[in-house]
Amino acid sequence: MWYSFWIGGEYINMKIGIPKGLLYYKYYPFFTSFFTELGAEIVCSADTNKEILDEGIKHCVDEACLPVKVFHGHIASIKDNCDIILIPRLMQVKEREFICPKFCGLPEMVLNSMSNMPKTITEPIYATSRKKLFKWAKKAGSMITKDKFKIKKAFNIALNKQKSFSTGIKNNNFKLNIALVGHPYNIYDNFVNMNLVKKLNELGAGVLTLEYIDDKFINKEVKELYKRPFWTFARENYGFASHVVNSQKVDGIIYISSFACGIDSVVVDLIKNKIGDFPFMLLKIDEQTGEAGIVTRIEAFVDMLERSC
Ligand code: SF4
Q1: Where does ligand 1 bind, in terms of residues with CB under 6 Å?
Q2: Could you tell me the pLDDT band of residue 308, with boundaries at 50, 70 and 90?
Q3: Which of 24, 186, 230, 294 maximizes the CB count within 10 A of its CB?
Q4: Which atom of ligand 1 is nearest to 64's Cα?
Q5: What is the 144 CA–ligand 1 centroid distance (Å)?
């Protein structure tokens, strides 16, 4: 049992729960350093595992995509060990684009399906400018301290941490190279993707992800579309796939997607129409997906690429 208490305008011994799901993989440096700088203790969930997945399935509606179910499991695993849980309602990271409708309603999904929840931070996050993001920081920070100077300082430190953080995969010295396309929580959560990158490497294929491609190349590809994509994931994944084919950077593309993802259902077709007969494999995953099936499919794909080299 822990004890947090409010003294002189701030909480002492405050524990903030941060679920390791969805865009945690991209933005954890910002969130963890912001709350740490405010003096809170971070309670982060474990890497996704079978128990977390099972809890997610138990607490989430059947129709949801796998990443949202997994997110529920992360919440369930830490909710009893913290004073406040962060449920990031991430709306925008780029002007004139949105993340996904599921992100907009994520707090409501969680709060309607889980009981005995602690307090939550659910303020919408518009990360399209420093000013807009600071608005979120002021509201979230005020749940821990009334010291405005401390919130501003924590925000600046957190933003710098995020700016100096880089992610992405670029394997060198492989005979074959494959572009791995998909959402960060499918690419970087090794439980969800069943260690896909390691498996490809063992088969002799290197992996490239979109973080290693300059945004200007991605945007150039997207400009050729009839209409600018409304969703950030759509712009990035379409632009990346299209660019690696045009620039002959890879031998094939694997798109890792979740069943019930509306955005992917459109993007995958757009990519297929654009790239013609370029080697492409769609791996759709949900909680029923078996590892043996994934292995068989990637072995066959790599084998096909080797033969056509
Ligand atoms: S983008 Fe697709 S996979 Fe991601 S949360 Fe939305 S529906 Fe689910």
Answers
A1: 65, 67-68, 100, 102, 183, 233, 258, 261-264
A2: confident
A3: 186
A4: 8
A5: 31
Q: Quick check: 81 pLDDT over 60?
A: yes
Query: CA nearest 155: which of 134, 175, 169?
Result: 134
Work out the number of other CB atoms within 10 angstroms of the CB of residue 55: 19
pLDDT at 226 (0 to 100): 84
State the alpha helices, DSSP H only, in the chain: 24-37, 50-59, 66-78, 101-104, 106-113, 130-141, 148-163, 184-187, 196-202, 215-222, 232-246, 262-275, 291-308
Is the pLDDT at 3 greater than 70? The verdict is: no
Ligand 1 centroid to Cα of residue 183, in Å, is 8
| Residue 243 CA to ligand 1 centre (angstroms) | 23
Q: Amino acid identity of 207? A: V
Which ligand 1 atom is the nearest neighbour of the CA of 99? 1
Among 2.40.128.270, 1.10.10.10, 3.40.50.11900, 3.40.50.1580, what is the CATH number of 176-308? 3.40.50.11900
**Ligand 1 mutation pick, 70, 263, 265, max ligand atoms within 8 A of CB:** 263
Domain ranges in the chain?
A: 5-163, 176-308
Tens digits of per-residue pLDDT, 195-231?
Answer: 999 999 999 999 999 999 999 999 999 998 888 888 9
**Ligand 1 pocket mutation pick from 25, 87, 100, 103 by most atoms within 8 angstroms of CB:** 100
| pLDDT at res. 289 | 86
Predicted confidence band at 13 (pLDDT cuts at 50, 70, 90)? confident
The residue among 9 and 268 whose pLDDT is bigger is 268
Q: What is the mean pLDDT of the chain?
A: 94
Task: Write down the CATH number for the domain with range 5-163.
Answer: 3.40.50.11890
Which atom number of ligand 1 is nearest to the Cα of residue 103? 5
Same fold, 5-163 and 176-308: yes
| Contacts (Cβ under 8 Å, ≥6 apart) of 76 | 52, 55, 56, 58, 59, 114
